[in-house]
């Protein structure tokens, strides 16, 4: 260790200029969700409980379908990044990596499933 | 730097050392509500997939979503989403460097708790 210079020891440990990317991503998705969530709660709440043919007709309309799709994609992106922070706080080593991979897979799976359902309902 | 101390450093005390405070409780609740909302997200996605799959499967999933269990999950999720919504707005306000003094931070904490209950009641009444 005595042969390492201070610079050599510090190299590669910095932010590599993307240190705030995760934080910024959370700010952007939270700002988007601050608008989307109130609209989604009442768009979705308005149709929950209706019979099947009404549900299909409802999501064939542009506004409910687009709001639901946007909320799903932005919401699951926000979940992916937020859950990652929680895992990084509580899990260590290999468990941390597997949990983060699992959360990312789950997030994209929910997005893909929801979008498929919406496309099928809308078209 | 050259003789940097590795391993034998003083560590800051962790959660269990501190007396619970409004600011810490509201912060932890933000994390719990945000992550717990995955249950509602899964239920809603399942319900959408069922609606796209046809009438018979929709009847099954819609029945589960509207059962007492589904209603309990959705009631909890409505409160969780409003709490997380308000706490997120508070976070954006904090991130701008404002509201960090103790009286304002505690006032914002009570605003999150009270506001989320009020918004939940309004949502339940409207829907």
From the structure provided, what is the oligomeric state, counting identical versus distinct chains? heterodimer
Number of strands of chain B: 0
What coarse outline of chain A follows from CA principal-axis ratios?
elongated
CATH fold descriptor of chain A: 3 helical TM bundles of succinate and fumarate reductases
Q: Please name the fourth-level CATH homologous superfamily of chain B.
A: Fumarate reductase/succinate dehydrogenase, transmembrane subunit
Number of helices of chain A: 5
What percent of the residues of chain B sit in helical stretches (DSSP H or I)?
over 70%
Q: What distinguishing features does this structure have?
A:
heterodimer, A: 3 helical TM bundles of succinate and fumarate reductases, 81% helix, B: 127 residues, mainly alpha, 3 helical TM bundles of succinate and fumarate reductases
């Amino acid at each position: 260790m005595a042969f390492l210079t201070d610079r050599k020891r510090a190299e590669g440990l910095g932010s590599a200029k993307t240190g705030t990317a995760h934080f910024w991503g959370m700010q952007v998705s939270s700002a988007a969700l601050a608008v989307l969530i109130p609209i989604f709660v009442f768009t979705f709440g308005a149709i929950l409980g209706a019979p099947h043919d009404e549900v299909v007709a409802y999501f064939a309309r542009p506004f409910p379908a687009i709001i639901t799709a946007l909320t799903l994609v932005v919401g699951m992106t926000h979940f992916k990044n937020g859950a990652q922070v929680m895992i990084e706080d509580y899990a260590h080593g290999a468990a941390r990596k597997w949990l983060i991979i699992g959360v990312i897979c789950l997030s994209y799976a929910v997005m893909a499933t929801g979008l498929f359902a919406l496309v099928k309902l809308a078209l | 730097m050259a003789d940097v101390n590795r391993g034998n450093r003083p560590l800051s005390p962790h959660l269990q050392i501190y007396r619970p405070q409004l600011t810490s409780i509201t912060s932890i609740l933000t994390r719990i509500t945000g992550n717990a909302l995955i249950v509602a997200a899964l239920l809603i996605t399942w319900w959408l997939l069922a609606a796209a799959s046809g009438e018979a499967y929709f009847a099954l999933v819609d029945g589960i979503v509207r059962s007492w269990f589904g209603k309990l999950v959705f009631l909890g999720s409505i409160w969780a989403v409003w709490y997380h919504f308000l706490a997120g707005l508070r976070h954006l306000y904090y991130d701008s460097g404002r509201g960090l003094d103790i009286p304002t931070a505690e006032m914002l904490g009570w605003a999150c708790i009270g506001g989320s209950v009020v918004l939940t009641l309004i949502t339940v009444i409207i829907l």
